Amino acid sequence: MVDPVILIPSFINGLTTGALYALVALGLTLIYGVLHIINFAHGAMLMMALYGVFFLHRLFGIDPYVALLIVPPAMFAIGYVLQRFVISKASHGRDENILLVTLGLSIVIENMALYFFRSDTRTIDTPYSFEVVEFAGAFLPLPKVVAFFGALLTAALLWAFMARTDLGRAIRALAKERRGARLVGINVDHVFAMSFGIGVACLGVAACLLLPGYYVNPQVGYGFVLIAFTTVVLGGMGSFVGAMIGGLVIGVVEAMGGLFLGDSLGQFGIFAIFILILLFRPTGLLGHKV
Amino acid sequence: MKKLFDTQIKRRQFLAGAGTAALVTGFPAVLRAQEPASVKVGLVHPVTGFVSFSGMQSRAGAEMAIADINAAGGIKSLGGAKLEAMLADSQGRPELGASETARLIEAGATSIVAGYSSAVSLATSQEAAKTMTPHVVDVGVADNIMDRGLKNTFRFAPGFGSVATTAVEALKEINAGGAAKTAVIIHEESLFGTGIAELLANELPKIGIEVLEVIKHANPTRDFTNIALQLRSLKPDLIIPANYYNEYVLLARTLRQQRIEAKGIYSVLGGAASNVQFVKEFPEAAEYIMDCNHWYDPKSEVALKRRADAEAKGLFYTYEVFLAYNAVAFLADAIERAGSTEKEAVIEALRNSNFANHGMPYGPTKIDEKGQNTGARAVNTQVQKGNIEVVLPKEFASADVIFPIPA
After folding, report:
1. Which residues of chain A have pLDDT under 50?
2. Which of A130, A205, A248, B89 lies at a CB distance of 3.0 to 4.6 Å from A18, suitable for a disulfide?
3. Contact residues on chain A for B253, CB-CB shorter than 8 A
4. Is residue A75 part of a domain?
5. Contact A30, A199 (CB under 8 A)
6. Ramachandran assignment for B155, one of left (phi > 0), alpha (psi -120 to 50 degrees), beta (any other)
7. ipTM for the complex?
């Protein structure tokens, strides 16, 4: 049951969905690549950012795209404080502790959301929520098109930041050689917290781009976090370009899988990729051993 | 000589002391007589997890019923005993639903009201059956919940066999002009969606509607574009969704974005088209959607008052709220008539129930040998000008059906 009339739109749709996955994965790959933290609270933090965007719109009438000026910086601050004063202190530098601390954080954040906001699914209605752009026979919702280019831009900015700025160099130095970085005078705790903050700020960007076409409830992060982990593994831990490509590939695989195998089996392809990559190319498409 | 120490107890002192002692030891007995032990009712709902919105709504409805019954004097045949809610969260997982049910019974729950989802209700009722604890299913629609014939299990609302029959009969009436000849069914993958889809796929051809495709999707589904694209290529006259709220919202939005135009959208227990929240938030996407679902009698004062009370509390008056409310009220009515919390007596009273104060289009309850209320039925609603109107059956209708959707 595959008609070329739907094959192309489905492929394009997969790309736009994939860009959103990439955006969520960008933060995760930065946090993993530098801090070697497997951040289980990533989904919960995305949910927190989505609520931020939702309430800015509901209470103050701030458009989600204008909220790009508010939510990412706020998420950066939250991320910085969490890493500097909670995660690093509670984990005592041990990886297994970090896992538990971030898992604990996710449970706390989700249950607080459940307590304060209840489990209602909430959406916002913007004038452009239902606008579509026609391209190659596909009707692309305007919010998805914006999210697609927003994700590309964010990835490019992150890449330039890491390549060109002192802080970016310090972060890369830390990722490669922690002790050496400390010896040349890099303030390790500060740079760690900055990286975590930037990773979490990416979720702020993702939330602003996501909400006009999506919904928020306390469980919304689940749907994204597993995909984000797969994206990071596929693209290569710590690689932004890899995360971007990984996200796009997964979006297309999901869309095509849905078309050929039926929608409920569509995700099968994603996890098949996950296992295959782990088996045959554990460093991912663009990853290298850190 | 004046005594230094008065060691003798005087009569007046004795009386005062004895009086105090009598007060201290006797009064609690008086209190106990005035305040009979509360009747503990276990409420098991998925208040977290993927159907938590519905779980929270169900819990809110059940708690409203308990508050109302207590405010009206509690269970009078037990000397005004108050109902006491014991809360548990199944997270939408059957095994957790079962273990929480066991925990509540262990902790003294005399009866159980559960479990919103069909899969969880199957597990909770089975667990309660081990101790013959009365169990009322509030929403779970799967027919096999009742078909097992568990003696302790009762359902006030209709099962999906009955709903699907109503849906097909109503559709035949709505489509008397023959505008719809083809349909696509879109359903979620658990017991509820799959069961409904199977029943409809068998029944629709009998009323002259060809089912072009049955499309299953996962919970959660993040993107419905693929399904919309398939619909565009299949061009069905009718789109029939059977899914939970989050997916319904995304599906309806995507259909509009992808400019999928059908002659009608006819949900069966689809949830959102009979969902006040959906209609309020997406009036345009919701307009003209029809639903065959649980709904209250729009002409019943009892129902309208409860709706006003729920809305005054900031609740959306969705089907979960009034079905869970009525499940508790149905149980409380049985305990009232049994005059006891003895499990067998309550089960017997449930079996002979003719509870009528429910505001549903059912008539007084009449329980069959499997524990199902045979009078229970779904009705057809349609969103018209941003309001949810009952369009069928005629005796409860508040508006005429509009089909096909005007161009």
Report:
1. 290
2. A248
3. 129-130, 213
4. yes
5. yes
6. beta
7. 0.71
